[in-house]
Amino acid sequence: QSRHAWRKLAAARQWNKEVLPALIQPYMAYERIVQSGSVILSSGNGTDHFLCRCIKRLLQITCVYLDRIEDISLEVCACNIAATQLVKRGLFPCTPVHPTLAVNIDMLEFAAGLFVHLSPNEHAWASNLSGFLRKHGYLLHTSDSLQHRFANSLAHYQVLVRLAHAEMSQSIEAVQTALLVSSPEVPLVDLIPLILERLPPLHDKIPIFQCDYLNAQSNIGHSPVQKPGEPFERPSAPDLIVCIDSNFQQKRNTDHDHREGHDGMEGASDPPIFSANMIFLSREFLQEWEAKVKTIRSAKGPNVGKKRPRPSTSLADEGDRCEDGLHVPNSALQQCGDSFITADENRIKASRTCFSDTGLMGLLCHHDHVLFLANMWTAGEKQFYALALIDALMKEIPCHWQVGLLYDIACQLHRVLIKWKYLDVWLPRLRFATSVFHAYRHQWVCQLWYHPRKAQIWGLSDGEGCEQLWACLRKLIPVLRVTGYHRRLFILDLQIEQRDSEETLSLCKQLRDRINKTQARLGLAKAEFDALGYSQEYLRGQFEQQRAYQSRPIQKQSKNKGVIIVNRIIQLTNEVETLKDQKGDLVKELERIYEDDEDSAMTQSLRFDMISALEAKDAAITRLETQIKSKTTKLNLGDPTNAAKLKEMKKDDWFSIQLNMRALKDRIISKIQERKFEVANLDRAVRTQAMEHAKKAIKRCSPTVDKLVTQFNWLQEKLISRKKPTPHAVVPPPIDPKGLHRLDIDADIWLDFDIDEDTLAKSGGWVPPWLGNENVHKGICFMQEMVNCQEEIARCQQELASMQTWYCEEYIAYQYTL
């Protein structure tokens, strides 16, 4: 490290270990004086005289106010340091020892409040302040600029405010403990001073990697309690609902060593900031989980992490199954994993050569308040980040609480936890669901089990709080790209703390508004449900039958295996053609981006994402073509029977139309999914050019989808006019283009109307009501809407009651603490 880096590190140690802990009580005393309206000791009233034998030193300090500059003299010693005297006068020093400049605390408070609503820019503030004071005849007669010293004062003042709040929180928690253990024999008035005196010094516990809001959230987020006489019976709902998501836009450039002879080497990190109640998990804790994941995987065998062996080519090995603890077959889970880049932890999302920190992963409660954050440094979204966040949460909540987890790839995470047994202790207390916004990329079978609107325990929680968080932090992307490691985490922490504190003040109003809106939705759903005339028990049974049938594994043995393979070959061929069309669209879009020749950070990110998507399409095409070749080999077309089957099925008009309709339906879903993904990029776009690209892509997509829907419905009418090959053949219903782009979970586009003819033959041609009766299908949707609304209302009402209790406890403890 350079000499400058060593000096910064030494100053940081003095701030964190000596000066800031000593300033907590003077700062709190200053705040009490300000709030009481008393007169503050001005900067020109001289020095506080201490009767000590220390060696005295006289300091000349320039005091910067918003409207003036004053010079004062302070007599300092080891017992009466300059920082303490300055804080008593409403000033804050720029250095821990022997400062030459101090800044008014009111101005620092105003700047700190401004910078949590805007992108922090100390340089602009200091330059504007210098020009403003210069116009009023005040000049700084120092060698170094105001910018550096103002930024230094502001940063450490923000840390001091955090420490003072942590000191107050520690005292309040101690008083709450005293309220629990007090008795007539030990009065509360005598007990509180004893407990407060025995509190350990706060600086002995810094840094504290625990979110202070988590304790408050634990009290607010209680599981709703069933009230006597209430007709609604709640199932085993989770006590706490959280969501997890990652963001790869919040990167930080790699620090380079610019000293002569050190080209290409990574530079020294900025000094650490020891702040209390940081919401970020420590780097050491994340690295422990990274090592734990590697150890568990390596213990499973030498082939872990290597390329999977080729599957057997025999017909007997064709099959599918549901793993223990899962309801979704492996085939559907594999397709879900292939459709999500997030599920591939080896996919490069940010260059490690350009960025030291590649992104963030957050864990939020269902009120959209941040509980924990993980700073990511790997090129991809590794699983150990999510595991560390879950582990940190489970260690902080009561041991009997059930936790509902909403995640983009919840099905993949659930499968991984069962397979590798990462969180064996916590797994029985976890419930999994996909976030609503990303559920459309999952297979229909997966949505039947993991979509929060298809279960009775989630209410109206959607898991999209992380998206709102990333939108709130979007303004920090340019600034934090060039900020130091510790300073970046601290700025993010301050921004999130301000956001959560503002939302906490309006949380009661939000809950009341949510109850009113949910009651309105419940009334509409109940009216539609009552008009159909079905009971909840009957419709619940139909939905369970639908789940059981549509999530059954593919049978391993079948007397019509040859027909199935021929069917699959034709399906795969259609999928390859669809992927090639999508690849062509991506190539055209990428060419348009390069023609614009804009070198912004957002455009570079779009190029990187589209190149990654092209590589994924190529890999998928290669994989499907390999499957076609393999299945063609399995079919043994040299056998006259199989060759005749293939020839006959290709010429069969009914079969050909049905396969074309299936391929069209897959293309429609794929196009709408891509449009939904583009809308997500549009919401996150920060550059006008990037927004224009997304808008153009959406406009180009709509006519294509409408054309495909028209073609599908035309084939459906054509299929009706054809003679059925068997008495049990089912004609799929037409697609309604109205509201198709919303990808609603209850839209007909998701329903798979293909049913096994063997099953129909066994039932005498009887089609189950959940498939063939439109009123039953609507009734299931209205029933689920009613149950979700009832669950949401019960949860919100209990949270309001819990919040009132918590506020009363906090107020009583606060009064005793003061």
TrEMBL record:
Q: Which UniProt keywords apply?
A: Coiled coil
Indicate whether Repeat appears among the record's keywords.
no
**Coiled-coil parts of chain:** 569-596
Q: Where is this region: Disordered?
A: 300-320
Which Pfam families has this protein been placed in? KDZ
Q: Which domain of life is it from?
A: Eukaryota
Q: Which PANTHER family match?
A: CXC1-LIKE CYSTEINE CLUSTER ASSOCIATED WITH KDZ TRANSPOSASES DOMAIN-CONTAINING PROTEIN, CXC2 DOMAIN-CONTAINING PROTEIN
Q: Tell me what this protein is called.
A: CxC1-like cysteine cluster associated with KDZ transposases domain-containing protein
From what organism does this protein derive?
Hydnum rufescens UP504
